[in-house]
Amino acid sequence: MRRATPGPGLLTVLLGAVGVGPLLLYGLSATSEEIITDLGINEAQFGLLATTCFACAALGNATLGRLADRHSDLGLMTAVFLMSTLALVLAGVPGGYLVLIIAAGLSGFAQSFPNGVTNRVLLERVPAQKRIGWVGIKQSGVQVSQLVASLTFPLLALLIGWRGTALLATLIPLGLLVLTWRTLRTVPLLHDTRVTGEETNPSPAAAATTLRPGHSAAVWALAAFGCLNGIGVQATNVYLPLFAVRELDFSLVLGGATAAVAGVVGVTARVGWARVMARGTSGPVLLLALALTALAGVVAFLSAQATGWAPLLWTAVVLHGASALGVSVVLMSVLLRSIPSASMASSSGVVTAGMFTGFAIGPLMMGIIVSSPGGFTMGWIAVGLVYLMCTVLATVLIRRRR
């Protein structure tokens, strides 16, 4: 079989592996008003779908990371795409709320391996000078998924219903599975892969931010930041379309467009922040900047609700996409600077488990608060407090570095 160099095909596979798992949840979020009405559930029950998804993802990342270290890239990628397909199929059958819960959980387990296995592919198959830039692109897979689902699910749901849309969406993971089998078999391993993330001599700025491979305290600190940020990210992502529809009288399609815009900004932000990291910027300093920007976004959400002025909502959406949605690329970039490929899946699993724990907490928290008399006002205040804690943790990390 002809051997190929790393190119667009491999990058598409990496981006797809990261983005395909959340596809179902973003689709459900974009059609949340229709699903709540169709199933006769309340906001808290709808939030439980996201909580189930991310709780399963956190469990998978925390328990299966070392197992992933011992399995092939092709095997893990196949598992990701097949589980994502099955989740969409289950969502498409008329089985009621319980079946939808099971589908959400399965889509969560599909998110157990992608960060670890894609980071390992970068270390073992992609030249060092390309890696950090590729991290930004492949981590934007989540926001590409958010963009695709937020635009297509509401439109298709008007024609074939939200269940029919879920079934049609199975073409995405199945197509990516075929591309994966073709690509990973042709892109060879590098000659020396069992080394730390930066094979070439790093710049002085990059060296100053490099962690020791065995520095578990730093890895756990990154996981803690990912958890806090994750609470705010998914509390916002899951309820953003519903907020736009109920509080600012947006249509179902326009409400979905708010999440789509956040996804577009998030893609751009992740690629941009990866380039900033590639120039040797300190990870903790960048995390502080992102936390402060996310706080500004919360203020804009509260102002939009108080005034009913749509431009404030779009401002909040942009700030959310540019900040909170860009955190994962910073966390993964720091890992790539410091962790050997032999333990990349398990180390990435720890940090990703932290993020998904936050993802699980956020929607449930927001759903309970929105269903209470405090409504979205108290919900946004709670999100703001979470980002404030991110700011404090980032400041602590900066001082520890110095």
Question: What is shown here, in short?
Answer:
With 402 residues, the protein is an all-alpha fold. 81% of the residues lie in helices and 0% in strands. This is MFS family permease.
Please explain how this structure is put together:
It contains 18 helices and no strands. By secondary structure, it is mainly α. It has one domain: MFS general substrate transporter like domains (Growth Hormone, Chain: A, Up-down Bundle), CATH 1.20.1250.20. Helix 7 (114-125) packs antiparallel against helix 17 (344-371). It is globular. It is found in: Cell membrane. Keywords: Cell membrane, Membrane, Transmembrane, Transmembrane helix. The chain crosses the membrane at residues 46-64, 76-106, 155-179, 217-240, 252-273, 285-306, 312-336, 348-370, 376-398. Its main location: membrane.
CATH topology: Growth Hormone, Chain: A
Text of the CATH class: Mainly Alpha
What is the CA-atom radius of gyration, in angstroms? 20 Å
Summed up, the domain count is 1
Total strands: 0
- Tell me the CATH architecture: Up-down Bundle
Oligomer: single chain
The separation of the N and C termini measures 51 Å
Residues in helices, as a percent range: over 70%
Low-confidence stretches: 192-215
Shape: globular
CATH superfamily: MFS general substrate transporter like domains
> Helix count, per DSSP?
18
Structural class: mainly alpha
Beta-strand fraction estimate: under 5%
Order of helices and strands: HHHHHHHHHHHHHHHHHH
Mean pLDDT: 84
For the sheet with most strands, the description reads:
none
